[in-house]
Amino acid sequence: MRQTLFFLFFIFCFANICAQQINVPLGYSFNQLIDREISQKINHSSFKPLIKTSININIDSILEKEFSINKNLLNHKLFNRHWILIEGDDYKIEGSPLLNLSLGYERVEEINTFTNTRGFVLEGYIGGKVSFYTSFVENQSVFPNYLDSIIRTPTNDYVIPGQGRGRSYYDNGFDYAKSSGYLSFNVSDNFTLQLGHGKHFIGNGYRSLLLSDNAFNYPFLRLQTSFGKFQYTNLYTEFQDMKNYLSSENNYDYMGYAKKYMSAHHLSYKLSEKFNIGIFESIIWKSNHTLGANGFDVNYLNPIIFFRPIEYSINSPDNAIIGLDIKYNITKGSNLYAQLIFDEFTLKQLKSNDGYWANKYGYQLGYKHYDLFNISNLTLHLERNYVRPYTYSHWNNANYGHYNEELAHPLGANFSENIFILHYRNGRLEIQLKYLDIIYGADYIGDTISYGNNIYSDYNDRSSDNGIEMYNGNKTNIDYSQINIGYVINPYTNLKVDFSLVSRVLSSEIHDYHTLFYSISLKSDLFNHYYDF
Are 386 and 416 in contact, with CB atoms under 8 Å apart? Predict the structure, then answer.
């Protein structure tokens, strides 16, 4: 308790020298509005959410231009601004309701689906010194067949993808909620501090192999430093290990899910006006519950150390991951990006190409082209992701996961994925086509052997030491197609009327599974919900 009070005192001491530091929403749909500007004008665009005052882009001006705000017949703030605005000379508070009122139908199993989401978002600054953000949503949903079966899997413990743990709602629905928030401080022109409960994303693509917003929210401390051509970010987090429940029966002082922690560094460097490179390292360790031991290992608090030497020097059983991300602007309207992730590898075994199990790595390659065929606001997005078996997994629950979900890619490991997205917008009308070609090797139901897909499985339960090939296990193919047609009512909250049609075909050695699902929604599309796997 004393440490918490001291930390809060430390934070508010800095409040006297703070400025507005609000984040850009993480949602892929919302970022389609500003992605071209970010790609061309922002060198350090990998670590997200981006802080508005650090990107030197006036988002309000972009929205006013793209949506003809102040020129549109529908010029009421209901259609163009936050619904709540309280401001003065040295403060500003904005807020809006958040909605997702959706009705749908899954044809294969004849399921009537719906989502009923009500919530709010508030953000702003007070005295020009303290910036804040908070949001809350309460939901009830009936999902299409494949999502329903994933949520009800016994090992999943009713976790709704990316949105927390649900409970039963009538016969076939779920009730669940999610809250997010942070306080943001500009300690100096070069240093920003954020303390909150939310998500992060590292990369320039649709997916991330380093850190994504796939999993549920978590408490975090983010330190971002900018100097010259560099941007350096430290992230400290606390995760929940839902596989291990602590109770008084186990002689623990408290009840609840076991904790684990992550300390991560990301260094971004501007090589040229077109080329940017980022270096990533993270370490995850489970909480030590032995008598007299602390949960958070102070060895990983130093913001400028390299984790591997520290891990080795303290004979640590922790899980270290290193990675690389790059972006290259080919022209003013196109860019290439890539990621490389190493969980563990042996150079000798890698060269021998004998399928050694501990050669755990993955890569991402992507391409974006804006104004394709010289058609304004037509964007092509291509991406390939590839991750070797057993990547992100560990033997002592220090896997790269949180709340029964993956911290990187929702497919875990032992997969490849090709993504095609074509997005077009004309005024407030938008159309998006998305196709995913997925192959992965799943575990067999009832088998204790891990084939490398499930990051929560102990890698000591592997099928063999050598000869581990891609798609090891039950080889599974997924063809996922989706079309969305929407009309944006309010660009500030990305409130839109949206029609969606989804076709998902899963085929494996054991069974085939088909989903044909359509829905119509009134929704605030600010957050990413990854149902496309």
Answer: yes
What distance separates the 2 farthest-apart alpha carbons in the chain?
68
Distance of CA 495 to the CA centre of its chain: 21
**Encoded tokens for 206:** 């649709």
Strand partners, 513: 506
- The helix (H) or strand (E) run that includes residue 351 is helix 347-352
Which residue, 437, 524, 420, is CA-closest to 29?
524
Domains in the chain, please, with CATH?
A: 19-524 (2.40.160.130)
* CA 456 from centroid of its chain's CA atoms: 18
Residue with tokens 């389609």: 32
> What per-residue confidence (pLDDT) applies to 13?
44
- Of the candidates 148, 147, 151, 154, the one whose C-alpha atom is nearest the C-alpha of residue 446 is 154
Q: Which two tokens stand for residue 239?
A: 């995760």
Look up residue 62 and give its two tokens. 């972009």
Q: How far is CA 503 from CA 85, 411, 521, in A?
A: 41, 18, 18
DSSP per-residue codes, 299-338: GG--TT--HHHHHHHTT---EEEEEEEEEEEEETTEEEEE
What tens digit of pLDDT does each residue of 85-133 get?
Answer: 888 888 889 999 999 999 999 998 899 999 999 999 999 988 767 899 9
d(CA 318, CA 233): 21
CA distance 306 to 492: 40
Residue with the bigger pLDDT between 62 and 175: it is: 175
The label of the residue with tokens 């259609």 reads 79
Nearest to 278 by CA among 310, 232, 215, 227: 232
On the CB side of 146, how many CA atoms lie within 13 Å of its CA? Answer: 19
CB 282 within 8 A of CB 264: yes
DSSP SS3 for 276: strand
The 3-state DSSP class for residue 498 equals strand
The amino acid at residue 152 is R
pLDDT given for residue 16 in this prediction = 43
Residue 529 near residue 433, CB atoms below 8 Å: no
Rounded Cα–Cα distance for residues 396 and 42 (Å)? 40
How would you classify the pairing of strands 415-426 and 405-406?
unpaired
What string of DSSP letters covers 122-169? EEEEETTTEEEEEEEEEEEEE--HHHHHHHHSGGGTTEETTTEE-EEE
At position 364, the amino acid (one-letter code) is: Q
DSSP secondary structure letter of residue 191: E
